[in-house]
Specification:
The protein has about 220 residues and is mainly alpha-helical. The chain has helices at about 1-20, 35-40, 45-55, 75-100, 100-120, 125-140, 145-165, 170-185, 190-210, and strands spanning about 30, 60-65, 65-70. It folds into two domains: about 1-70, Orthogonal Bundle (Arc Repressor Mutant, subunit A), CATH 1.10.10.10; about 75-210, Four Helix Bundle (Hemerythrin (Met), subunit A) (Up-down Bundle). α1 crosses α7, α5 packs antiparallel against α6 and α7 (about 145-165) packs across α9.
């Protein structure tokens, strides 16, 4: 019986987590227990357990008499997030270049082909998902377990910001161009260059996110 409860909680957790990551649940949005119960056909208990787990991950926040909401991405949270992201993704790109990992470069180019199609269709939702895959592939290819786990945890937080920043009509093609520059830098097998290019990309994404959310310095 206990195992069945855990399975249901895991299922609810994964559903909400992926919904936040994909942008279906937006920053600041209230999560209603009854809606999730009806959608997933489960009782309130696994929903509450899943929400408590998500709160520990920092993805939702619960306030008395105000319910549970997806976290609002404040200026300070975005700054903290992108500081960590810049260091971690810089390390990932460096490690790929050091290893001269041709298979990683091939996979990344394949992801960029999908991104190009999404840009042509102006499909921001799909592009956000593809972009997450691009950055997670860099983490996976680093083969650094701690880097992979930390970035995987951060990915849903990053997605909350990414959907907003990509909604600027000029950003998707610019973002695609920057991603191609990152892959080219890694394929040059120059670790310093690869790290510098991806860090520049993350910093630019950070400033654009602040500007789009109207919380610039």
């Amino acid at each position: 019986m206990e195992n069945e409860k855990e399975v249901k909680t895991d299922r609810v957790f994964q559903y909400i987590y992926e919904s936040i990551k994909s942008g279906e649940y937006e920053s600041g949005q209230t999560l209603t227990e009854s809606e999730i119960v009806n959608k997933l056909q489960v009782s309130r208990t696994p929903v509450r357990e899943a929400l408590r787990r998500l709160e520990k991950y920092g993805l939702v926040e619960s306030k008395p008499h105000r319910g549970v909401k997806v976290i609002s991405m404040t200026k300070q949270r975005i700054e903290d997030l992108y500081q960590v992201r810049e260091v971690l993704e810089g390390l990932g790109a460096r490690l790929i270049a050091q290893k001269r990992d041709e298979s990683a470069v091939k996979k990344l180019n394949g992801i960029l082909t999908e991104a190009e199609k999404a840009v042509e269709k102006n499909d921001i939702h799909s592009l956000s998902t593809i972009n997450s895959s691009f950055h997670m592939e860099i983490a996976q290819a680093s083969e650094n377990l701690y880097l992979i786990n930390i970035l995987n945890t951060l990915q849903s937080h990053i997605s909350l910001v990414m959907v907003t920043s990509l909604s600027n009509k000029d950003r998707p093609p610019e973002n695609l161009k920057e991603h191609r520059m990152i892959v080219d830098a890694m394929e040059s097998w120059d670790p310093e260059l690869a790290e510098a290019v991806i860090k520049s990309h993350v910093r630019k994404s950070y400033h654009l996110a602040l500007k789009k959310m109207d919380i610039t310095k």
